[in-house]
Design brief:
- The structure is a homodimer of 302-residue chains.
- Chain A has 302 residues and is of the alpha+beta class.
- Chain A is built from nine helices and twelve strands.
- In chain A, helix 2 crosses helix 3.
- The interface between A and B is large, with 101 and 101 residues.
- Strand 6 of chain A pairs parallel with strand 4 of chain B, so a sheet runs across the interface.
- Chain A binds a DNA duplex (30 and 30 nucleotides) through helix 3.
DNA sequence: CCAGACCAGTCAAGAAACACGATGGGATAT
DNA sequence: ATATCCCATCGTGTTTCTTGACTGGTCTGG
């Protein structure tokens, strides 16, 4: 698959040509040595790869004999890579947080970056793995959970069916045997995960998850006209409105994150830059879906 | 370099063996066909790779003739990959947000995941590139900036020296010619970036960036004892205290994110789970560093 | 100023990796 | 029973690399 470029370039060669493009794009320079060392090939082979890249994109690079490196030419155009700023930044965060090693990436010198966060704990990959297996097999498993409410019994049986990311944290959407409804479990609070057995629950009955609703958002009218205009531009609003479609259960996190759940005028408007115009509708829909879901499961299990 | 494993395995072969390990770990299954297609090799070669992997880690996989796939064996142990839950999740987010294409990863069927956020705008990679070049060359450049204060003049000249991620957004730390001090610029609000010229500013004079301070955090005493204990566990506190060292300029974002900048008792304690014990010290240190920095630049430029 | 280190490029020969063609076995579907 | 789809394995040729040998340019230190 994939290699539509060129006729029949081997996978490894294609990667090396992409490496050249990557380095030219982001670093603006690379060495024959860089190529040879990151891929474990001989200098001669690296030379031939560089020649091949030059044939592909003649105006992209120039050798600087003083710096002893190939430099990005002014006429450079990305040829083989799909440059995404977000992907680049994401990899930098991953390196900074020790989630990846620099050798696993193509970075040479990473720019000075910082990640501002209080949470630096690592999740055990095996726990995530157990959750993923359970999702794939539609099974249930016992977990040890450090609940925020400090419930005395840390062991629960859940049947997970999805993962999601909200406000910087990862959650598992799952059926809870103990509570007889669908709940969110913070992935980082799961201490242990047991074996997977088949579950009886049908995840399509999780109406709070399955159903979506439109959140209608606007800049906080207490802000100055200039600030409101800036927010409209930042969120890409049309006519001063932003409509975001979200799963019902996830509206909770957006409301928390953006302080939609705080009464107006209790916070300075700078901390409540957006307002949720249909807040009552959203809250009611969520509550209704929750109730309907519980009833539906009840009926299904009879 | 990397290839310390084995004696002299070629880079491409090593990747393919890692692919097998990756799929076994996360998906629990893979095909000869998967291997052949993602790497553009023949079925025969894929067979030989599988044989090589099996020789390396005999207890890791078993062929299921009914499913026509290799399955993760119960005795599986990761051999070639460095499993990181965070890295895996990060890649899923990147795919979901269209920052990466699924073909660029080794995922087969991605599990059902969601990313809850209002901001879905893409940054232009070329703008980030200009900023990075300026950082590397210690240069300055003109940008077009959509300020939140709605300043009428959208063009500014900045000399950036670092990037950072805070509260879900990316910022550039830079010297501002117009304001004659160091400021943070939201990367997503930069509309255009001009050519880079050498800058006169010395970024080590950015004291708010260079100096760090300890934030002393504790669970909000208004919460129940159970809840406080859960927070202590989640943030890994010792003796009910969490000490986080941060750059002065970045304390602002942590204070915003965790509502340390809101007076106690205005918010329900659930929205202010942590309190900053040395808040006055932090705020004062930030203001002092800012003033000292401006003075130092003043002296240096005379 | 010139030797030595380091960067690069090239040519030729041999080894390794890989593709292609062919053959065979087991499981499932028609 | 035949077809199909997995997988494995054995030759044989081809492509891709490596190894070795030689050449040229730029910078550094004695």
């Amino acid at each position: 698959m994939a290699e539509e470029t060129g006729e029949t370039v081997r996978w490894g060669v294609q990667r090396r040509l992409e490496f050249i493009d990557f380095r030219l794009f982001w670093d603006g320079r690379f060495n024959r040595r860089d190529l040879a060392e990151t891929f474990g090939i001989s200098a001669q082979q690296a030379s031939s790869d560089i020649a091949q890249y030059t044939a592909l994109a003649p105006g992209n690079l120039a050798y600087d004999q003083t710096l002893k490196a190939y430099l990005r030419a002014p006429t450079y155009e990305p040829k083989l890579m799909h440059a995404s700023a977000e992907r680049y930044l994401l990899q930098l965060v991953a390196i900074e947080n020790r989630w990846m090693r620099q050798e696993d990436t193509w970075f040479d010198n990473t720019p000075p970056i910082e990640n501002v966060s209080l949470l630096r704990k690592r999740t055990d990959a095996r726990i995530l793995l157990h959750i993923l297996d359970a999702i794939n097999q539609r099974g249930q498993l016992e977990i040890q959970y450090r609940s925020i409410t400090g419930s005395p019994e840390p062991r629960r049986v859940i049947a997970p069916h999805a993962l999601f990311h909200a406000v910087g944290r990862w959650y598992v959407r799952a059926w809870s045997n103990e509570h007889s409804d669908f709940r969110d479990y913070n992935l980082f609070r799961i201490g242990q995960a047991g074996d997977i057995v088949t579950a009886a629950i049908d995840s399509t009955l999780d109406f709070e998850w399955m159903h979506k609703i439109d959140l209608i958002l606007a800049p906080n009218p207490a802000l100055s006209a200039n600030q409101q205009a800036a927010l409209e531009a930042e969120y890409g609003m049309t006519d001063g409105r932003l409509v975001v479609t979200q799963r019902l259960s996830q509206t909770f996190y957006l409301m928390t994150e953006h302080n939609f759940d705080v009464e107006p005028d209790t916070l300075p408007p700078g901390k409540q830059q957006l307002v949720l115009l249909n807040r009552d509708e959203v809250v009611n829909a969520r509550a209704t879906a929750r109730k309907l879901s519980i009833d539906a499961v009840e009926r299904a299990s009879r």
